[in-house]
């Protein structure tokens, strides 16, 4: 059991499936107490596991961040994982102002509010925040305008908060996943040859990642093992963002 997470108290948003579920599950395995936050219609399958508490909440609503953090009041808050978000954006020509506002509200404004509420709790004792951004927030990606803009904003927020609150003992980092295998991405890969070529053939490791691989990096960044790591945006993408890559023919 990793010493860095044992007896830590964590909030994990978007914990019902995919990356969020993998993060929450690994944190529980490593001895943390986890408050899993997701929408009321999301199945919180981890309910019943020792150390896990479920909270149904729409984080895009006003006051939701403060409510989520208040539910961790029974124990000191050590870790915030901002994983909840929305994807599947379209080119700018097909993106309305309402679309853009929706991406910013969920992917930037809600994590900002959660960070603000969590930092108020962590001041004086320290803590760790890990934001789940995207490689699309680090590199341009055709056909994903609003999503990429919002994830770039989340990455920028990570750097700013790390600078502002390091003296409070609060470390702020982000992971930037590449293509991660989920039922949704599998459907898109099967239907869109261009997307498959860009994301898999353009990846040096030649495959999608697994949610558990993102969870492992989040656990490291949240743990005491990363006690001198802050202000880092770590791509976890099989090398996709590090090089313009296509396999050699034959």
Structure description:
- The chain has helices at residues 18-29, 64-70, 97-122, 145-165, 183-191, 193-201, 211-222, and strands at 9-13, 33-38, 52-56, 79-82, 127-132, 170-177, 233-236.
- It has 7 helices and 7 strands; from the N terminus they run E-H-E-E-H-E-H-E-H-E-H-H-H-E.
- It is globular, with a radius of gyration of 18 Å.
- It starts with 8 loop residues before the first strand and ends in a 14-residue tail after the last strand.
- It is of the alpha/beta class.
- Strand 1, helix 1 (18-29) and strand 2 (33-38) form a beta-alpha-beta unit.
- The chain has a 7-stranded parallel β-sheet with strand order 3-2-1-4-5-6-7, sandwiched between helices.
- The longest helix is centred in the middle third of the chain and has 26 residues, at 97-122.
- The mean pLDDT is 91.
- It has one domain: 3-Layer(aba) Sandwich (Rossmann fold).
CATH fold call: Rossmann fold
Instruction: Write out the CATH superfamily name.
Output: NAD(P)-binding Rossmann-like Domain
Strand order of the largest sheet: 3-2-1-4-5-6-7
Strand content: 15-25%
Give the topology.
Blueprint: E1 9-13, H1 18-29, E2 33-38, E3 52-56, H2 64-70, E4 79-82, H3 97-122, E5 127-132, H4 145-165, E6 170-177, H5 183-191, H6 193-201, H7 211-222, E7 233-236
Helix pairs in contact: 1-7, 2-3, 3-4
Q: What does this entry show, briefly?
A:
This protein has about 250 residues and is an alpha/beta fold.
